[in-house]
Amino acid sequence: MRYKGAIDLVTEMDVAAEKLILAAIAASYPDHAVLAEESGAHEGSSGYKWVVDPLDGTTNYAHGLPIYCVSIGLELDGKPILGVIYAPNLGELFCAEVGGGATLNGKPIQVSQTTQVGKSVLVTGFPYDVGIKSSNLAHFTKFIHKAQAVRRLGSAAIDMAWVAAGRFDGFWEPRLAPWDLCAGSVIVAEAGGIITGYDGGPFSIYGREVLATNGRVHKEMADILAEAP
Question: Count of domains in the chain?
């Protein structure tokens, strides 16, 4: 185990899992590009790009907490079209393809029906340098006072998958990376949810901020995000 930053862990499993995933992609799709958390960008000659987080929730994994996953998304010409999130310790495989719906262990899933933030269970996360101004603390405080409950699991990919499955009603988080967002964005959308930037504008996995909800509390959450400093 080593550190990328003061508290940003990289385990042997991160590296080993990424090598296996990249080898499988190269064997089946040698002309596809890859963007992977640990090894960075690998060029390709087609319009396809795999976006890979080999172990999302590394800190949880390193401490024996069972909330972590592998997250693999696929872009075509810059647009996410496929997402797979596998949480091995939970035995849960989330899959989605644009136009094909979203599934959990092969069974269709849908977002929740909750219509008010005050009745919602929300989830968020924090960047590793949590002490800086844009750390999410102000927004977290706002939502604690307005929502039924707010949780922090430590895996953005699982957060989005659980919004898609209706376990959470909404998720927001700043300063994420493309590999945190690609697969989950497809799964949320295909489960009937909405995913945008904080301001409700168009979503990009390269945009760093995400608001993903069941759609019914989306505007209210966006308004609250606009209120907080």
Answer: 2
